[in-house]
Amino acid sequence: MNRFRSLLGGLLGWEFSLIILVGAALLIGGLLSPDFLTGSNISFLTANFSEVALMALAMTLLIIVGEIDLSVASILGLCSAVIGILFAAGVPMPLAILAAFVTGGLAGLFNGLLVTRLGLPSLAVTIGTLALYRGLAYVLLGDRAIAEFPAFYTNLGFGNVPGTLIPLPMALFAVLAILTIIVLHATPFGRSLYAIGANQIAARFAGLQVERVKLSLFVLSGLMAALASAVYTFRFASARADNASGFELSVIAAVLLGGVSIFGGRGSVVGTVAAVFLIGIINGALTILDVSNEILTIVTGLLLIGSVLVPNLLTHFRTYQQRRRIKGDSVIQ
Amino acid sequence: MKKRILLLSALALGLSTLSFAQAPTTIKKGLKITLLPKNINNPYNVIETQGGLDAAKEIGAVAKVVGPSDAGASSQVSYINTAIAQRQDALVLAANDANALLPYLNRAKQAGVKIVTMDSDTAVSGRTLFINQANSEGIGRAQVQLLGKLVGYKGDIAVLSATPNATNQNTWIKWMQEELKLPRYKDMKLVKIAYGNDDDQKSFTEMQGLIQAYPNLKGVISPTTVGISAGARYLSTSPSKGKVALTGLGTPNQMRAFVKDGTVTAFQLWNPGDVGYLATYAAASLASGMITGKQGETFMAGKLGKYTVGKDGEVVLGPPYTFDKANIDKFDF
Asked: Among B35, B73, B78, B199, which Cα is nearest to A296's?
């Protein structure tokens, strides 16, 4: 129990530091540029990472159970191509979006079946489907771009909640983030994810249906990518096969920086959300300061390395201290 | 008393109409202008934006070049937003996607940022002026005319383009196809339009693919600086050198070696520096209130002289120029 509490404390510490960093990034950005802390800029800045944020929610759950989905951005591209090609063929938009969700769900199911039924490592499976789904998107849409969507839908992607500066995609994200927090931290299903991630064999002996849980999370990840594809397609009024390519790295960077252990069993949604904002705000501040795009990529990379390195160093430091203490005790004896 | 107020207000009204009636005749000093190329690592764009910076220096404007490192549909959006947040007077851009940027450009317009596109246009509603390098019809037809001469008006020909939704390339290709309908080209057949995505490696392999797939290929037009230099690099070491005529749009510095070793006989281009130069003068004239973008308005563009705004806010730089062994050494860009 004590250990559990200290673990919880450590996690809260990480999340708390992230939230402090978000505040610091906002403050420093505001100090360096008078144009940074304006309502419209912050509004745009948050809208700009809404797809990454949405996909990071499902990714958090997947990484907690010790799996990963590298194909999310490709699923987004595939679903975007599906929306585009169906709309161009005259299919009503609601049906086209539904088809995107079916596509995303099936893509996730395929990932999940390969991992759970054949016992393949998800890292390898989803590197494969990363290429596969992106390829399918190109097969569907070729090098074309479908645009000219009805204004109602592009406004959904581009607009704000009426009367506020909150982008609609971000409002959607807020609702889903709260739902995910509740499911992960306040339901037996959520607790079972930690159990599976911490020790899969023990979880199985405890009667948890490990395979089924994992399968459902892969499907969820696919559905989230489909949702993100609708947001992306409407936000940019452009369905292209290359939409959001490379976003998987931003998603995973956010989840890991958020304190979710890449080995599973540890992490929280609050951490992921804070990390998504931190990366987005740092990128936004650097952009407004006219820092070149290459530097921006380097900063994101360093954040990711730091997020894996710092907790690791802390653990090493703690075990080192413990060992010293034990040694000290034995000397006294 | 009443009379005096009336008189005063009449005077004030008269003064205000007077000041409205006279459009400023000089460019304001210290205008803030953002130059946003398609991507910042493309040598063509470097020359183009350098022309813009040169013009800014002449008129005492504060100009800067910002931009993404990839030419994806959405990657310019955050820079448009930054220009709004930084309250720039004008934004000069080469659009990566004709539709994806529209809502963001409209927001910039509402915020009072004057929008001038150069090189690659958005839909008309997205900008006030478009600086066209040359009349699209002129470019398209001139390239077919040049290739016709090079291949003796006989044989299979192909086009190696940039991205499939690049607005400028697609318009030129349309006019190439029009030109090919003339009776003198009856023995020339356009067998394939390949897309190298303005990526050196992809263009290189697409050129290789064209030559392997069409054994009777006599000529290739590559209306993009990336495509023609990658294509020439492949051709210079292939057995088809001297048998397949390659022409298109390239810069003298990129093509010099290939013209001298006989891989390429002739190619065309305008001076990209002049495009950026003209666009910056146009943007500054708009931002100073000297012109509003209506058809028939005229403005001065420094060393380039006087220009007239055409239909739909289009300003044409001039006809393309043909470079060959005899004249290429006179140009350094």
From this structure: B78
